[in-house]
Amino acid sequence: MAEVVPTDERAPTVVVDDLHVVYRVFGAGTGGKGTAPAALRRLVRRQSSPVLREVHAIRGISFTSYHGESVGLIGRNGSGKSTLLKAIAGLLPPTKGAVFTDGQPSLLGVNAALMNDLTGERNVVLGCLAMGMTPAEVKEKYDSIVEFSGIGEFIDLPMRTYSSGMGSRLRFAIAAAKKHDVLLIDEALATGDAEFRRRSEERIRELRDEAGTVFLVSHGLDVITATCDRAIWLEKGEIKMDDDAATVVKAYIADTGG
Ligand SMILES: Nc1ncnc2c1ncn2[C@@H]1O[C@H](COP(=O)(O)OP(=O)(O)OP(=O)(O)O)[C@@H](O)[C@H]1O
């Protein structure tokens, strides 16, 4: 996309235009699928009969987000939230339609690629370099990242010794050390404790105020209302509602019972 020059505070950061994402999966053939006798029969007859199945995860979504917005994505399991984030990040190609972004989108997931066998310290350095920081910037940010993560002396131990909460705290601390044009966060705050969540929510607001756009996928509706000014409710790959966060969360709770 041609570079978008912001002309006012409402300059768009992400434009999603009639987006469709279809996963193509090779599965077992039909005919008694899923039962033990059928599986055994296929094994004995050496039948694999793979069949291409399609999962239409995103079905014609369009919206625009703007500088300084933080947008919560909510919806039931399998409604397409993570798929939408990956498509915005450029990790999944649209089957139809398009995603335009102004600036570099960065996806922060609980599975962000940190190395389990390396210490937290090495991961901080590598993670920062991977985000494009210079060694001097890494040096400058290092202490604040470790402090934010609250990992303490575990920073000298390999990451495989961390609890899942500690791992996601470190990932969030690394990602949040950089100013992002478009930051995409997938449930990263789910495993942190209350104090860490409070600090993370504060940092998300700061990132948003630094004129970037934050997208946050969460099942924690309180996190969405505390952090986001807008929410998009997905259902079966379509937008059911797109409005200010409090309004959407209220409607979602009324529909699902929370
Ligand atoms: N790699 C994949 N291959 C095939 N189908 C997939 C894949 N990833 C997701 N899907 C399917 O796409 C649909 C949307 O999944 P997605 O993970 O985006 O939903 P979600 O709203 O993020 O769910 P959750 O709240 O459970 O994390 C689901 O039907 C899911 O089964």
From TrEMBL:
Gene3D superfamilies: P-loop containing nucleotide triphosphate hydrolases (3.40.50.300). The keyword Nucleotide-binding applies. It comes from the Bacteria. It holds the Pfam family ABC_tran. Transmembrane segments: none annotated. Belongs to the ABC transporter superfamily. This is ABC transporter ATP-binding protein. It comes from Tenggerimyces flavus.
